[in-house]
Amino acid sequence: xxxxxxxxxxxxxxxxxxxxxxxxxxxxxxxxxxxxxxxxxxxxxxxxxxxxxxxxxxxxxxxxxxxxxxxxxxxxxxxxxxxxxxxxxxxxxxxxxxxxxxxxxxxxxxxxxxxxxxxxxxxxxxxxxxxxxxxxxxxxxxxxxxxxxxxxxxxxxxxxxxxxxxxxxxxxxxxxxxxxxxxxxxxxxxxxxxxxxxxxxxxxxxxxxxxxxxxxxxxxxxxxxxxxxxxxxxxxxxxxxxxxxxxxxxxx
Length: 252
Known about the structure:
Elements: H1 2-12, H2 18-26, H3 28-44, H4 46-56, H5 61-85, H6 93-114, H7 121-125, H8 131-162, H9 166-193, H10 197-214, H11 225-251
């Protein structure tokens, strides 16, 4: 019991260090590091934003913002917990494995349901998976939270590379989450205007899933970030090309 209490104290005690918070709020250098973390979170969270926007797109427009808001609070809580683990996060590689497998399942489910579009309205109207038991809205919130957990591990590990001060990592991460949620909401609106983006989103999610699974320790293959952004650029270019090519035909 004493060992557990000592571990909790050493892991989370820094959150209650008044001198640390005073240093952060009065140090221009600390705010420079926080700005760096916010920018880094925004640049590296494109994958997270795409996953979240694809997940909430199944909901009515009013519920989409609500689901992202609930996910936002969950992300903050989990960020608080994860930062307490600090560098011990490397032992949580199985979270990335579960996250990758979860994304693979979401992609398979999406394309399987998409292929049933012409087989009858009754089948399409039936909820599937977790939605059968807790409803579509709450099953979507659960999906959002699960992905927040997976992506938080990588984000916090990268943040500790910038600064090992818990308060700086926490503030930078929380502001970065706000930025990422804004990108997700923007992408959701864009998906409503460009329907072809839904398929593109799940193609990108498939890429993200493969990337996550390859990075687990027993495989250890890291795909460069530039390859992901190149994949995004090509995917979006093809999608918008198809959309604008089809638009005149749909208007006639």
